[in-house]
Amino acid sequence: MKQSLLTVMSLFLLVWFSPVRAQHGYTISGRVTDAVSGAGIPFASVALKGKTTGTTSDAEGRYSLRLSELSDSLVVLSLGYRTQSYAIQQQSAQTIDAQLTAAATKLAEVRVYAKGGDPAYRVMREVLRRRDQFNPAQLSAYQYDSYNKIEGYINSFTRKNKKRPGLVGRFLGKLPAITDENGQPAVPVFISETFSTFYARINPELVKERIQKSRVAGVGVSDGGLISQFTGASFQQYNFYRNSLYILRKDIPSPVGSQWETVYTFRLKDTVVLNNAVCYEIECTPKRNSDLAFTGTVWIDTLQMALSQTDVRIDKRANINFVEELHIEQSWETLPSGIRFPTLTQVTIDTDQPVPNSPGALLRFFSASSNVIENKPEEVAFYTPSLEIADDFKETDATFWQQVRPSSLDPSELRAMQVVDSVRNVPLVHFAGEVIKLGVLGYVPLGKSNIELGPILSSYAKNNIEGYRFRLGFRTNTGFSRKWQLNGYVAYGTLDRQLKYSANVEYIISRKPWTVVGIRHSYDLERVGISSDNIGNNSLFAAYSRFGNISRPYFQEENLLYFRREMKGGVTQTVALRNRSFEPLFAFAFQPQPNDRDQTIRSTYQTSEFIAETRYAPDEVILQNENARVSTGATRKPIYTLRYALGFRNLLDGDFAYHRINLGIRHSFRVGVLGRTYYNVGLGIMPSTVPYPLLYMPLGNESSFYVGNAYNLMNYFEFICDRWATLQLEHNFGGLLFNRLPLIRRLKWRELVTAKVLVGSVSDSNLAMIPKTGTSGEAIEGFSSLNHTPYVELGYGINNIFKVLRVDAIHRVTYRDNVGRTGIPVTPFAIKLSGWLSF
Prior knowledge:
By secondary structure, the chain is mainly beta. The chain is built from twelve helices and 42 strands.
């Protein structure tokens, strides 16, 4: 749609400035010169006052205008000079010579330009100087109505150079299709339309989107709730006034950002009229073809030196996986305050073929903003939650969409919306969609019972304690209830012949704000040093830890009651009561505390604790899929998590009174052209005397795979701390070096470095709780603790090998002579593999 609009405008301007129009009878010509030196001023803008007609002077300062009608004056302007107006006589031909006087900033501009170079650099320097004046981020707040349309197609499955299309190509050739702009068939597999209201507040920086209506049709899409939130304005923000644009998890420098002169080369092509304004047409290209940067054109308003339009792209020479070309077109308009605002945006992503002769995909994103309201911020509480969807968002008709669309759809787009339903109902396509859903969600619907079985990843394991472990899990969906959520599992081991289980019931008290209460009861085999507290959300590593030789295993019975509420400004508060038992299957015992009446050495215990957790994530967007909540992460601000646990003695048979406090900070930031840095910081203290399984155990990794949140050369249970500080850092250069090496540039490898540091200690009282022998006289295994030297491991690696593999070489810098828990020395160096699918 946007491309057709640009084509019409180009044809209009071509006819408008065509010499054929001279027959209507008016000609103005002359020369634009410097009032002091008399030298001609190139590329000066000459336009009729109050009209859209204009031109630019040539290299000698000469110009000529052929007109069908006149106005009262001629406006002449050039960067670095004061604008001048000259009266026009009512006659068919006349000469107006303009003499411009240098502006106050003339000296600095002329001095730079005197070194040579294209005049575009003078324009771009002025754009950078004024960009804060026009950046929407300078408003105290803004809101607007947003229409978003997303289309997905499978294309490139028929080619003229393919004599015999493959099986997939023949199958796709039989599906309903439309014809794309290249005249080739394209099968629509996803179409969505979303209408919402988007709100933004600058101080504090908060955003909110209310999705009012949405309709989604696509292969593998059964419920539009979650998908509709992904297709809204929250994920279609493209502000070229920022230093970089975050697209496909890549930081792409903006042509008008702070790195403009470092990354780009500019050339002034022409001066044209866009949206009733005379604009410089400036071409931008990366200084190095392999750089992740845009190639294209920006149009700069000659009067305001502000963005008017952009048409830029990134081709396959840049280091983006699966992308043949990324194309962004955007139009900017001036608001009453003078701020520039992007009103129309179209993004096209044409993917390459994963393997030779395979089909490709084409994605189109269209976004239109209207009814912009400036500088009327809402209260801070209004922006929580940052994303919400109306209860009746599915209830729409054709009349509604005709009213909110910025322009009528062309015939191919209308046909695409009709054809996609036919495509997804083809039996084989429907089956493929269900397989995709299973791979993404991990759950299989159980008929029409509103119960889903899974996750598949945890269904089977084999280890030395349980033998073959089989697990059957389930969860309910919204068809079961919009208030109650049930989930759980049963598991059985063929060797220990023990039944394990878990049952969780959660009740949704309120959706606005999101408030839930839940209760869980479980009984299962666990291992010391690997728990949900340190594994986090790494479900793959949790499933892997069930395989192989399980060291220091124990059975745990847990009862948990929790309450969670989403507060204002990105704050989520959780409070819980938890009771746990510890029944070891290894040689374990602990000394009673000195003030205990019973000084008998024991091997089992119970804990009862109150937990309070405050999570602050002001930049996070939460998606709500009916009864489920999904975080999309944060891009600009850190996420803070403060957790406090208070242990009670003699409450629900709790054996210990203790305190535990820990703080976590997670964030990433851009380091200019050097790439992006990710870091996690952890701080904690447990100033109490308790058995060592209750202390802090950093997550080790004895596998051959790299684990992001683990110390990859530390053994399981190698160190224990009751005071600790951690830093885990990773910097991705994004191919900064490899892109400049001709022999490996085509491989699209990306270099990275990692560093992980642990500082900690254990008090003498906690060390003293470990007896030499247990209740039956067996020797008790102890543990290692850090001294004044921190644990450090450093690494370097290559990512994006075959687009999915990552290789890390890791060096253990300290404690290289430490002896592991089995008496075998630790590994000081290792190469570990992992799989990372990224753009």
